[in-house]
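Here is a typical sample entry:
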Amino acid sequence: MKKYNPHNTLRISTLSILFVIASILIVSAVVKKKQWLRAIEENTLYIYEDYVERYPNSRFAKEAKSLIIDIKWDLAQDTNTIEALQQFIDEHPKHKLAKKAHAHIIKIRWNNADQLNTIAEYNNFLKHHSEGTLAQKATRRLLKFKEARSPFQKAKKAFLIIRQDYEANDKDSTLKALKKNTIALLDYVGIDLANNQEDGDFTITVRTTGYALSDTYYNMGARWTGAKVRGSVAFQASSGYRMTEIYSNSVKPPKKVKKSQLSEDRADAPFDEAIVTPVSEKIGLLIYKCFGMSSLHAALYDTDADIRQFASKAIALSRSPQAIPILSEALKADNYKIRALAAESLGITNSPHAIEPLVLAMKETYVDIRRASYKSLKKITGKNPGTEHKDWETWWTKNKAYYIK
């Protein structure tokens, strides 16, 4: 009979423990690799961040962190907003892409200032970027503004010139509509139309060229049921200073029309439909540039639905810091049509700051408001988590930090 040896028992126990530890490590490594393969397959920011949080010491953690930065950079580029790019810089200040993000921010701010061509935008650019070639350019433009803007601010009358360089039978109706809309919009800044150019403190000139579009309809041949136009709207002070907005628009021939709407005369093409709305919106935008936002803010609640639309679109196109708060406020208006218009216009701003009010608007009982909010959210984010408020609310909760600092 063998004598009991406690050292043998200890040796067996130690081996058992080592075996268990090795088994745990092997299982852990297998789990980590399995989760990593799953993360690669899904390839989303959320899944990589979750992996790093769960397995910070995994051999795949470094690659996961690198992919997180790549996805954040792609998201910042796709969003293409100052907020998104600044968020990337704040989170990864020493990364090589931070310098590129900063250059993008400068480009965005300059493009905004150059496109909107307003004192506020140039001042905003200089506030953030006081040195460099573009800063010098902004300073020179501000000096020109200070010399030239005063005639608009003191104006009491404007003379309207409308040049219609296209062949159409509805030129008179277009002219009347543009005149009516111009009078209504100018009324919000206390300016009347002058009967002759000499009496006007500044001139509003609308120039339009265009041509008819046709389509072929069953048993009727080609008919002129569309129109394509382009042109400019300009406010010119007596000093010669001029502010101009370019526009283009088209009305595509519909696939189905009533027989009474068909015409063999290309002059019957719907030029009126193609011209009036974009020109009126540009007039509204120039009113903002010359007289400020308060006039458009008031016009947003006009009794005329067309004037509300022109004001709303001009506010959105202004890209002013005031635009999002004004349109978000309009989402709470008593008139549901104003709320729907505000939801649509927020999409035009393409600003991440418009996402949250639009997500809230998805709760609306009116289908027109929900539909407009849904379209605007898709346009701004490039995402489509669903058609219900809860879908967007869940998505926004997870992704808000990447859009809003």
